[in-house]
Amino acid sequence: RGLTVIMDNTFCTSVLFDAFQIYREVQKELGEPKVNFVYIESMSKFYRAGDKDEVNAGVIVASPSFIEECDAAMARLGSCLANECLKRLPANLMEPLEARLPMLAEKARQLAEWLWPQSEVRFVGHRRVGGVVYMELDTDDIDVATRFADTLDCPIAASFGHPITTIIPMGAFDEGKPGEIRIALGYKEDVEMVKVKFEEAFKVLRV
After folding, report:
1. Could you tell me if 128 and 105 are in contact, meaning their C-beta atoms sit under 8 angstroms apart?
2. Where does residue 146 rank: exposed (0-12), middle (13-18), buried (19+ CB within 10 A)?
3. 34: which of 26, 72, 171, 201 lies 20 to 30 Å off by Cα?
4. Phi then psi for 4, rounded to 5 degrees?
5. CB of 139 within 8 A of CB of 27?
6. CA-CA distance, 69 to 156, in Å (whole number)?
7. Full DSSP string of the chain
8. Inter-CA distances, 108 with 72, 127, 128, 183, Å
9. Each residue of 75-97: pLDDT tens digit?
10. Is residue 57 exposed (0-12), middle (13-18) or buried (19+ Cβ within 10 Å)?
């Protein structure tokens, strides 16, 4: 009864993965809940007003006592959210996600399957959910990886679900994996167009 299970559903959101359904099934099987269930999502990834990244926030669904602990911790740390940014979000946050996320997940699957056989790629990570793909270039040279990212005609953005595909060169933050790149597929961009961009950038590795 003292165990707390925290479910971070940022990459899928409740559109693609209903964590509460699993919790209800556990409740039904075990009777009275044996664990404290906490659901969290980042609101600064897929959720936005239009195509602008204006919100830096998160969602926590938990018991009142857990929420009180979170409020107390944020008060001690001085982390308080200004409500002004939330006013710019549409009243119905789920409607655009319900249309876009399944499409983004399919695009990510197609790109991941295309990337795997490429000789310039060491690893591809995609769990067949969400619109995000992780890839690792077959290089340990951060300068080469940086040139690849600079050549790739994709803007850098920390959030997901933009009109066009965006990236984050993760190697800039992790010396152990200089060639790792996070790719967030764009909802207005065809997968074939994204492949062309990568083909051009792979030429940097072939020099």
Report:
1. yes
2. middle
3. 72
4. -110, 125
5. no
6. 35
7. ---EEEEE-TTTHHHH--HHHHHHHHHHHHSS-SSEEEEEEESSSS--BTTB-----EEEE--HHHHHHHHHHHHHHT----GGGGGGS-S-SHHHHHHHHHHHHHHHHHHHHHHTT-TTEEEEE--SSSSEEEEEES---HHHHHHHHHHS---B-SSS--SS-EEEEGGGT-TT-TTEEEEE--TTS-HHHHHHHHHHHHTTTT-
8. 39, 10, 8, 9
9. 787 766 555 666 666 667 777 78
10. middle
**CA distance linking residue 81 with residue 58, whole number of Å:** 10
Instruction: Report residue 9 CA to chain centroid gap.
Output: 9
Which amino acid, 177?
A: K
Q: How far is CA 139 from the centre of its chain?
A: 24
**How many other C-beta atoms can be found within 10 angstroms of the C-beta atom of residue 193?**
13
Report the C-alpha gap between 6 and 90 in whole angstroms. 27
Q: Are the C-beta atoms of residues 185 and 111 closer than 8 Å to each other?
A: yes
Model confidence, pTM: 0.86
Which is higher by pLDDT, 27 or 125?
125
Q: Is 124 left (phi over 0), alpha (psi -120 to 50) or beta?
A: beta
The Cα–Cα gap between 28 and 79 comes to 37
